[in-house]
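Box 3.1 — From sequence to structure: Paired box protein and transposase domain containing protein
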Amino acid sequence: MAPRKEISVCCRAQVIALREVGLTYRDIAAKLHFSKTGVERIVQKYKETGALVNRSGRGKKKYTTLQEDKQIVLISKRDRRKTASQIREEFNATRSKDSAVSLTLIKDRLNESGLYGRIAAKKPLLRTVNKMKRLNWAKKHRDWTPEKWKTVLFSDESKFELFGGKRRVYVRRMKGERMKLQCLVPTVKHGGGSVMVWGCFGNEKTGDLIKIDGILRKESYHKILMKHALPSGKRLIEGKFVFQQDNDPKHKSKLCINYLRKKEEEGFFECMDWPPQSPDCNPIELLWDELDRSVRKLQPKNSEQLWSYLQTIWKSISTETLQKLIERMPKICRAVIKEKGGYFEESKI
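Predicted structure (token representation):
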């Protein structure tokens, strides 16, 4: 049975006023579109209390005290991975069997305090030294304007799979349709084929996108630096540019570092000292996500088709998209500083 709708104080006042001028319960009910019983109840309560507002303390009493509610929240905050069932078990351990609380009550108290069950975000482990390096990097670049960030050539590698991507897929289905073909995401071993690529962008333009065959080793990356990375920087960015790469072991190999140092001495570019464990600061990561979403819509059938689609979409990435990624960089620096080198929430950037 549905609960009765609460009648406002203003409407109750109208009922009393009409009653005092001599209208019957039936007439009042018809005029205000209430039930006759509801009108009688309002008048009777007014005669008993002389007030139109509800009595204090009225309503269902809470089964737990304020202190016990705080205890439930504290148990959850001490270990964020505890389930509601585990919290209930720990909480009831301090109570008698007759006063044990239900799982529903535990969930209600957690929700009332703003603690909702959510899927944990996955991020690379940040140690204290990593946080310090991230913080120092952000402080060093916090005064850079978007125009300055346009001189940076951002680069990275990424893997794209035909199947088995980590991205969630939502479908609408009816009861009993969970295993229906249209409601499934097919998976195969090893992703059913994949394409590894290296790419770069700078000055609101995309650079080369290269397919990597097999495992990318330091010798192969050295060739990418010579034939694609530095040439892309010269082509996309006028004057001296800044080359960004992460701290992957092959990037930091003696072969590649010595080559970059030698070319850096020629004066047409400089290398950015990139902080460790910081893919969240690299705007090209968002570009990979956008590329992945776009290529999945085309549903490539094999690796060759996947590579073809990747090249086509890469070339069609708009200036506006790249501009937003560049304009995002000063905000990232501020966010990293605010979090003292820790991770920041993407939605607040």
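Summary of the box: The mean pLDDT is 89.
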